[in-house]
Amino acid sequence: MKEQAPSSAAPPQKSVLPQDIAQRYALGLMPEPQRSWVSALNDIADSLMTTVHEVSDNTVVQAKIGWWLAEIERLFARNATHPATQLLQADTPFEKLVPAYFQQFLHGIQDMRMQTRYLDFPSLKHQATQIQGSLIQQTAALLGASATTHEAMQSLGVAMALKNSISRLGYRARLGRVEIPQDELTQFGVTISEIRQNEAPWGYSDRFSALIEFQRERALAQFKTALENIPAGEKPALRPLIVQARLDMAWLDMLPKMDYQILHQHIMLSPLKAWWVSVTAR
After folding, report:
1. For 246, what's the count of Cα atoms within 13 Å in the CB-facing half-sphere?
2. How does DSSP classify residue 132?
3. How many Cβ atoms are within 10 Å of 226's Cβ, its own excluded?
């Protein structure tokens, strides 16, 4: 009898968090069949990330992660059972699928479930490298990038993870996860209980603004380094990811104008601003 995914693993769950506009623009710029390949990859990632953040029963979470570890083995054995992996198996040239990227991503998800606080930036960056770094590396491979982009794409994935740690801070904190290093919270005098407040004044203060400005500047520096390290000859194939990065950077640029009020609302670029960034991104 063919092994079936547990009910918690299929179909992919949808988070209550609004879809990332930068990711949506990036997908829109991809030609077929790459768009379908990357959409399938994102379905896998979104399903697992939603489970880690929103499912409280650790037994269910570990069962789902274990199922996906086995499913990735089935994918590379050409015996996939999930719709997303079946699409990748049927339509994607196998040289574009890198087992190490999938394994690093899944092991990063396992570590994330067990760790809801980070003592310092190296520990946060390690997790970002495992999860988002591996995901962007695999996305780049699906878009046709060569191995020369490996380090730049890993760095770009880390930058995107740092941006998400800021943009989703209030949402994730109320689910029990704070992705700002503990030593930096202490440095700026901000407590987790302040960030998790569920009513006005929502934890806002001059201390909080200074903390988020520090996070913002580091994320922007990470983006700039990653983009500078993309080989010129690879940029046409990677344009969707470059646009996604520029949109994330534009969002970070907007934070001071919004007085860093990210805890109680989901701040988004205006459609006109997003369009302009997407057509001028280099």
Report:
1. 19
2. I
3. 24
Do the beta carbons of residue 245 and residue 226 sit within 8 Å?
Answer: yes
Give the 3-state secondary structure of residue 199. Answer: coil
CATH superfamily, with its number, for domain 149-281: Farnesyl Diphosphate Synthase (1.10.600.10)
Summarised one tens digit per residue, pLDDT across range 164-219 is 999 999 999 988 899 999 999 999 999 999 999 988 889 999 999 999 999 999 99
Residues of the chain with pLDDT under 70: 1-19
Asked if omega into 33 is within 30° of 0 (cis), the reply is yes
Q: How far apart are CA 180 and CA 136, in angstroms?
A: 21
Average pLDDT over the chain, rounded to whole? Answer: 91
Q: CA torsion angle for 57, 4, 108, 38 (degrees, to 10)?
A: -120
Radius of gyration of the chain (CA): 19
> What is the per-residue DSSP string for 89-156?
HHHS-GGG--HHHHHHHHHHHHHHHH-S--SSHHHHHHHHIIIIIHHHHHHHHHTT--GGGHHHHHHH
Domain boundaries, the chain: 30-114, 149-281
Question: CA 8, CA 181: separation in Å to the nearest integer?
Answer: 31
Report yes or no on whether pTM surpasses 0.85.
yes
* Ramachandran angles phi, psi of 14, nearest 5°: -110, 130
Tally of CA atoms within 13 A in the half-sphere of 126 that contains its CB: 11
pLDDT of residue 19: 53
Closest Cα to residue 30, out of 19, 18, 42?
Answer: 42
Give the count of beta carbons closer than 10 Å to the beta carbon of residue 9. 23
